[in-house]
Amino acid sequence: DDMDVDTIWMDGEFVDWDDAQIHVLSHGLHYGTGVFEGARCYDTEEGPAIFRWEEHLDRLFASTKPYDMEIPFSREELSEATLELIRRQNLESCYIRPIAFFGYHALGVSPGECPTDVAIAAWPWGTYLGEEALENGIDVMVSSWRKHASSQIPTNAKTTGLYVNSLLAGEEARRNGYREAIVLNKEGNVAEGPGENIFLVRDGEIFTPGLSESILDGITRNTVITLAEERGYEVHDNVSISRGELNTADELFFTGSAAEVTPIKRVDNVTIGNGSRGPVTEELQQAFFDLVERRTDDHDDWFTYV
Ligand code: PMP
């Protein structure tokens, strides 16, 4: 591997990276029946610290609910395994990927007796959309693919199968020369990115699609709403945003554990605001990085120190 890591935690044991294998007839491979998380551990003055790990664990367990999937490990076991994985590999900052999926038993769509297999990996992962993107913003395209409606598949559960839609939208955008996509929901309103939530700034107020817009309840979304409110902004987080509002926004940005806070400078080649990172985006991005890298002692309860 080229990720400078050698260990994966799998079904209760630490195994060599190359040995972390599953059967080709695993249910999750055939039907997309896995639930997963993506969290970041930041290199802080007090050592590595996982940002909002408890909320990621909450969401992991919540994602199993619609699938009646039982993770055969406790929260504490998963947490201890993750911390140990980071320590063993001497990682300072890293991305953390826990996954639970229906494994190998029989190949009916009904998972029946399939075991729930669980694995956790952690590896160094730089900026998701590029360092330059954080500063100057990215070009995005409104995808021709619509997001699954939450009446078709629970979009608030972070399920592996959902990401086929993310791939279609993201690759369509990249084939057309854009860095990322914006995906509309079935009603044609703005939902989110393939792996990001979206925010809009207009006249000094902040807007983000509500949870009923078929989005993932993003942990970074929640963080940015909190940071914005603490700084006195009016945040409208239970609204529908029409496609046209993207073009007339003063500022737009994506949030996500991987994408962090990434400005959007153009949508379908229409320049947003003055075509660079806007002042509100910059303030919240700065607040976000000050927080996660612990240049402030605010919200210490959001950190799990390794
Ligand atoms: N929406 C989707 C579809 C995602 O995959 C992600 C990344 N998990 C997000 C939003 C952002 O969520 P979070 O801030 O919790 O990473």
Characterization of the model:
It catalyses: L-leucine + 2-oxoglutarate = 4-methyl-2-oxopentanoate + L-glutamate; L-valine + 2-oxoglutarate = 3-methyl-2-oxobutanoate + L-glutamate; L-isoleucine + 2-oxoglutarate = (S)-3-methyl-2-oxopentanoate + L-glutamate. One of its GO terms (biological process) is amino acid biosynthetic process. Acts on leucine, isoleucine and valine. With 306 residues, this protein is of the alpha+beta class. It has two domains: 7-123, D-amino Acid Aminotransferase, Chain A, domain 1 (2-Layer Sandwich); 131-292, D-amino Acid Aminotransferase, Chain A, domain 2 (Alpha-Beta Barrel). Helices cover 27% and strands 30% of the residues. The protein contains eight helices and 17 strands. The strands form two sheets. Strands 8, 9, 10, 11, 12, 13, 14, 15 and 16 form a nine-stranded mixed β-sheet that branches. Strands 1, 2, 3, 4, 5, 6, 7 and 17 form an eight-stranded antiparallel β-sheet that branches. Strand 8 (138-146), helix 5 and strand 9 (180-184) form a beta-alpha-beta unit. The two termini are 24 Å apart. Bound molecules: 4'-deoxy-4'-aminopyridoxal-5'-phosphate. Residues 38, 192, 195-197, 216, 218-221, 255-257 line the site of 4'-deoxy-4'-aminopyridoxal-5'-phosphate.
